[in-house]
Amino acid sequence: MRLILLGPPGAGKGTQAARLMQKYGIQQLSTGDMLRAAVTAETPIGLKAKAVMDAGGLVSDDIVVGIVAERIQQPDAERGFILDGFPRTLNQAQALDAMLIEKHMELDAVIELKVDEAALLDRISQRAKEMQAAGKPVRADDNPEAFKTRLDAYRTLTAPVSDYYAGTGQLRTTDGMAAIDTVTDAIDKLLTHDAKA
Ligand code: ADP
After folding, report:
1. I need a labelling partner for 41 at 20 to 30 A (CA). Which of 32, 123, 186, 193 fits?
2. Which H or E run includes 28?
3. From the CA of 31, how far away is ligand 1's center (Å)?
4. What residues act catalytically?
5. Number of domains in the chain
6. Host H or E run for residue 174
7. 105-153 pLDDT, tens digit each
8. Which domain holds residue 65?
């Protein structure tokens, strides 16, 4: 199964992706996680991406598309994958379509988590607090200022990606404001009853 999870920062993509990964035995491919790993490892990509990520902006399409193209052909992604945080621009969505055609892969569904914007900053702040309390590093972009930039990037650059998949007939939306388990059940229903409808 190959899925895309769409939604604003703080929508719960990572949480749901982890559950889908367990349930279907497919890989969660989070471009945010991959980029953060590159930053920590101080690879050339990481060194390039750090400042823009910390500020809440988007890393260039070329870099991200390159990372994904390489990642989806690793053996552990053979059974399928959930793309979390990609595609984030129209350009990336088109590049993904081209790479899927080239690799003879098909998407099963694009699932969008709809969340009230007013709830997002609270969720992000909560995540930062929980990480801190657990003694884990807090993401450099989980602060109100970078969050504003992330939300702006989402509105202007990523929202059109939903329209793109609505146009191809692949988009399924669900209420991301519901409780975590309820969202999981809703996604499950979309995948079992509806994904090919
Ligand atoms: P969020 O919680 O905002 O969804 P992510 O963990 O998905 O955060 O991504 C963190 C940051 O990594 C983004 O703000 C951006 O700088 C960079 N990033 C992740 N995915 C992409 C992408 N597909 N295109 C460009 N930049 C990306």
Report:
1. 123
2. strand 27-30
3. 6
4. 13, 88, 127, 139, 150
5. 1
6. strand 171-175
7. 999 999 999 999 889 989 888 888 999 999 998 889 999 899 999 999 9
8. 2-115+159-196
